[in-house]
């Protein structure tokens, strides 16, 4: 009888503990202004600039929403707005110093979804996928 009661108590405590533990693999919302999110978004935009065939650099305007998933590292799924700057590709190493295009004929804002894998303990950042459309 005592063993049965002990088992019930242990299982009850375990279920309380398990309910508060985040499981690996679940997709969770995260604050778009979180420093890790902003770091991942900046990395994603820089990678976008390297891969795109566009003449001008783009920079982060706003992280609209963000989610993360724990894997062997962290995958961030980011919905962001990026804007065309007045800096031609290859002319600067500091995109943040570039201004957004003001001329309505040249200005362009894109809405992008980026998926970024970060494995901090291995110093790995990879842009897994992205898709962008004119906003």
From TrEMBL:
UniProt-listed InterPro entries: Cystatin_dom, Cystatin_sf
Is this entry keyworded Disulfide bond? yes
Q: Which GO terms describe its cellular component?
A: cytoplasm; extracellular space; vesicle
Extract the signal peptide range. Answer: 1-19
Q: Which UniProt keywords apply?
A: Disulfide bond, Protease inhibitor, Signal, Thiol protease inhibitor
List each copy of the Cystatin domain by range.
22-133
Q: Which family does it belong to?
A: Belongs to the cystatin family.
Protein name in UniProt: Cystatin-2
């Amino acid at each position: 009888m005592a063993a049965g009661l002990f088992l019930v108590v242990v299982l009850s405590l375990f279920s309380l503990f398990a309910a508060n533990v985040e499981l690996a693999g679940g997709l969770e919302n995260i604050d778009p202004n979180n420093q890790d999110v902003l770091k991942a978004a900046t990395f994603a935009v820089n990678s976008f600039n390297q891969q795109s065939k566009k003449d001008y650099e783009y920079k982060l305007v706003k992280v609209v929403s963000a989610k993360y998933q724990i894997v062997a590292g962290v995958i961030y799924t980011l919905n962001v707005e990026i804007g065309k700057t007045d800096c031609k590709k290859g002319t600067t190493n500091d995109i943040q110093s570039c201004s957004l295009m003001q001329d309505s004929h040249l200005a362009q804002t894109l809405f992008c979804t980026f998926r970024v894998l970060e494995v901090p303990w291995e110093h790995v950042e990879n842009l897994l996928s992205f898709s962008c459309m004119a906003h």
